[in-house]
Amino acid sequence: MIKPVAAGSSRGVTLVAEPAGLAVALAAALALDDRVLAEDVTSGGEIDLAVLGHDDLRVPASLSDADRAALETAAVTMFDALGCAGVARIDFFLTATGPVLNEINTMPGFTEHSQVPKMFAAAGLLYIDLLDLLVMNALTSRRVFGRHAGHAGYSE
Predict the structure, then answer these.
(1) Which residues contact 66 (CB under 8 A, 6 or more apart)?
(2) How many angstroms separate the CA atoms of 44 and 144, rounded?
(3) What backbone phi and psi angles, to 5 degrees, belong to 12?
(4) In whole angstroms, what is the distance from residue 45 CA to residue 93 CA?
(5) Phi, psi at 127, each rounded to 5°
(6) How far is CA 41 from CA 2, 16, 105, in A?
(7) Residue 72 phi, psi dihedral angles, 5° rounding
């Protein structure tokens, strides 16, 4: 897989099956960003996690307890390691050998119909309340540690 680092929404992503397709794939990715990722193809169900800089919010997906714990820990660890604030969506592939990080969306879509607000709505947090929480956290510049991941078995 060849993709631009920061284009988002799978724009500029190309599956390269043969070496002859590499130049075209690189050109497509470089048209959107000056940095390019090259990744192995990963088979497995995609699991996306939204991490909110606030204590104790989770949206359960259909996962085993072990998979859920591994994904939540990985998502919160990535959120903190990268110094994220507010909300981020962290996407994984859940493979036969365990979770594989796909990407981190530090500015995920955020209309009422976007994935992250739907994840928190499923946990009972209304869109307007989620916006209020994010704005209040930003205004107080309070960085809350010990974040929790909201997740959904959602595939685009």
Answers:
(1) none
(2) 32
(3) 75, 10
(4) 6
(5) -55, -45
(6) 10, 10, 19
(7) -60, -45
Local structure of residue 108 (DSSP, 8 states)? -
Q: pTM to 2 decimals?
A: 0.57
Q: Name the token pair of 112.
A: 């009422």
Domains of the chain are 2-38 (no CATH), 45-152 (3.30.470.20)
Q: Which is nearest to 8 in space by CA: 138, 154, 120, 156? A: 156
Burial class (CB in 10 A: 0-12, 13-18, 19+), 15: exposed
Distance CA(128)–CA(25), nearest Å, equals 40
| Tokens (6 digits) for 98 | 């365990």
The contacts of residue 153 (CB under 8 Å, 6+ apart) are 45, 47, 61, 62, 63
The per-residue pLDDT for range 92-119, each reduced to its tens digit, is 888 888 788 888 888 788 888 888 888 8
